[in-house]
């Protein structure tokens, strides 16, 4: 097929996610290597979002490809009830990377079903039925994960599942109150959460589910003491703490898992994306030793045909080994420092940049009409003039490929990016922000 034929068949036969089908305009792609991909006319694009913040190791990683091929030669599939080397070894490796309270892994196909199964296990283990999650979070688009989600992508599922309660996250930049310090903000949000637990009946709450660092809703990093404070509330009321590490996990933020920045031990961790970098889909739920022990005698009423798919586990094992062998965390911390410094300069230089938030190679640029009032460039949930789409187009025209959410542009390149490559790409972002300053405010 030619590029044009591929594009036209895509438009005619595929239903593309999160899109009005009439407005889609997919680029037909021919090949990809490292942080780049090419269309059928030979144009090279830079992946500045790691696709959907999943391709942490970029395209064409030989070690992952070879591990998949080796497993294809042995067998492609074996039901979850058989012991398979890649499945056993990956679970063992993941537990080895976790804090000492964690016990076992239940593998899923991706992130949404990891969260589905996490809340199911939490409800079975605690015998309670309410689940707390936060506004401005995204946990997946299936029914349960979609009900955890605290932004408009859950609206088609409403009126929603009874017992799914939302609370406010510590988004200090957009808070009406100003705080003297991060600690003061933490104390405020924790007091509100405890108050809400009281009104909901804390003894009926099975779990508090949080993206450790909120991802697609604008890389919102919790203030000092916030996660330990949530942990303490969970301990006080017998609630399970579930950290969704689907986007923030696997070296993205400069530690293997984002919760490691904050010195907390969750009861359940969900993961997906970077565990295989998308070479084969895989997700999972890691549970504490005590939750694992509960299911020694009680039925684990969870199941998926492809739980722990041997090919996916082969990819996962190669991927996780590669993170260590190639010192990916070293690169994330080195290049991430440069990313943060450049983003701070962009914020200084451009009236349209209200805030920049970054940790490791995970960052967002929040656009405003006015730095002082912090009025967002586009109102929440709306973009009547299509401004964010225009900004993404201006970036794409310079082959800087990423996406936006509300008034934030995401910058989350593959974790193998070099400082020189990053500098080249951020100069394109600088140029586009200059156009926003002149033409869109
Ligand atoms: N949780 C978080 C934090 C995510 O960012 C995503 C997807 O972006 C999901 C869950 C859902 O994962 P998936 O799309 O693999 O189902």
Q: Strand order, main sheet: write it out.
A: 4-10-9-8-7-5-6
Could you name the CATH homologous superfamily of the largest domain?
Type I PLP-dependent aspartate aminotransferase-like (Major domain)
Which CATH architecture of the largest domain?
3-Layer(aba) Sandwich
Q: List unreliable stretches of 5+ residues.
A: none
Our estimate of the beta-strand percent is 15-25%
Q: Main β-sheet: number of strands, strand sense, barrel status? A: 7 strands, mixed
**CATH topology value of the largest domain:** Aspartate Aminotransferase, domain 2
General shape: globular
How many domains? The number is 2
Instruction: Decide which structural class fits the backbone.
Output: alpha/beta
**Which class of the largest domain in CATH terms?**
Alpha Beta
Terminal CA distance reads 43 Å
Bound molecules: pyridoxal-5'-phosphate
Helix content: 25-40%
What does this molecule look like?
With 441 residues, the chain is an alpha/beta fold. The chain folds into two domains: 3-60 and 327-439, Aspartate Aminotransferase, domain 1 (Alpha-Beta Complex), CATH 3.90.1150.10; 63-325, Type I PLP-dependent aspartate aminotransferase-like (Major domain) (Aspartate Aminotransferase, domain 2, 3-Layer(aba) Sandwich), CATH 3.40.640.10. It has helices spanning 3-13, 50-53, 62-74, 85-97, 111-126, 143-148, 182-200, 226-237, 289-297, 310-325, 328-349, 387-397, 419-439; strands spanning 29-33, 36-39, 44-47, 102-108, 130-134, 164-167, 205-211, 240-244, 268-271, 283-288, 353-359, 362-370, 375-376, 400-401, 404-405, 408-411. The strands form three sheets. It has a seven-stranded mixed sheet with strand order 4-10-9-8-7-5-6, sandwiched between helices. Helix 7 (182-200) packs parallel to helix 8 and helix 11 packs parallel to helix 13. The termini are far apart. The model has no long low-confidence stretch (mean pLDDT 97). The structure holds pyridoxal-5'-phosphate. Pyridoxal-5'-phosphate (PLP) is lined by residues 52, 110-112, 115, 138-140, 211, 215-216, 244, 246-247, 272. Belongs to the class-III pyridoxal-phosphate-dependent aminotransferase family.
């Amino acid at each position: 097929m030619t590029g044009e034929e591929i594009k036209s068949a895509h438009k005619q036969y595929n239903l593309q996610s999160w899109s009005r089908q009439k407005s889609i305009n997919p680029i037909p792609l021919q090949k990809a290597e490292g942080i780049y991909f090419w269309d059928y006319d030979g144009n090279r694009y830079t992946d500045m979002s790691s696709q959907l913040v999943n391709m942490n190791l970029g395209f064409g990683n030989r070690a992952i490809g070879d591990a998949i091929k080796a497993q294809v030669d042995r067998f492609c599939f074996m039901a979850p009830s058989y012991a398979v080397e890649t499945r056993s070894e990956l679970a063992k490796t993941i537990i080895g990377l976790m804090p000492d309270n964690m016990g076992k892994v239940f593998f899923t196909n991706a992130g949404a079903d990891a969260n589905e199964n996490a809340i199911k296990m939490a409800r079975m283990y605690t015998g309670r039925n309410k689940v707390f999650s936060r506004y401005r979070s995204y946990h997946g688009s299936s029914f349960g994960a979609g009900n955890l989600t605290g932004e408009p992508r859950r609206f088609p599922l409403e009126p929603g599942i009874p017992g799914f309660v939302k609370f406010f996250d510590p988004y200090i930049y957009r808070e009406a109150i100003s705080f003297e310090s991060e600690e003061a903000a933490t104390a405020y949000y924790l007091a509100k959460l405890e108050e809400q637990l009281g009104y909901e009946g804390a003894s009926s709450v099975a779990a508090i589910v949080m993206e450790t660092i909120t991802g697609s809703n604008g890389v919102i990093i919790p203030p000092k003491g916030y996660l330990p404070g949530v942990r303490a509330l969970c301990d006080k009321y017998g609630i399970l703490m579930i950290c969704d590490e689907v986007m923030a996990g696997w070296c993205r933020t400069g530690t293997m898992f984002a919760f490691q920045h904050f010195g907390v031990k969750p009861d359940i961790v969900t993961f997906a994306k970077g565990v295989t970098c998308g070479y084969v889909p895989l997700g999972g739920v890691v549970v504490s030793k005590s939750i694992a022990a509960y299911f020694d005698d009680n039925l684990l009423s969870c199941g998926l045909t492809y739980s722990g798919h041997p090919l996916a586990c082969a990819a996962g094992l190669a991927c996780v080994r590669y993170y260590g062998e190639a010192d990916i965390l070293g690169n994330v911390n080195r290049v991430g420092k440069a990313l943060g410094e450049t983003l701070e300069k962009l914020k200084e230089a451009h009236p349209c940049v209200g805030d920049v938030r970054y940790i490791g190679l995970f960052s967002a640029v929040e656009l405003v009409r006015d730095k002082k009032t912090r009025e967002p460039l586009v109102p929440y949930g709306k973009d009547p003039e299509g401004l964010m789409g225009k900004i993404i187009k201006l970036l794409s025209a310079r082959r800087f490929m990423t996406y936006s959410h509300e008034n934030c542009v995401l910058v989350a390149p593959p974790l193998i990016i070099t400082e020189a490559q990053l500098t080249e790409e951020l100069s394109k972002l600088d140029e586009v922000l200059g156009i926003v300053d002149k033409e869109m405010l």
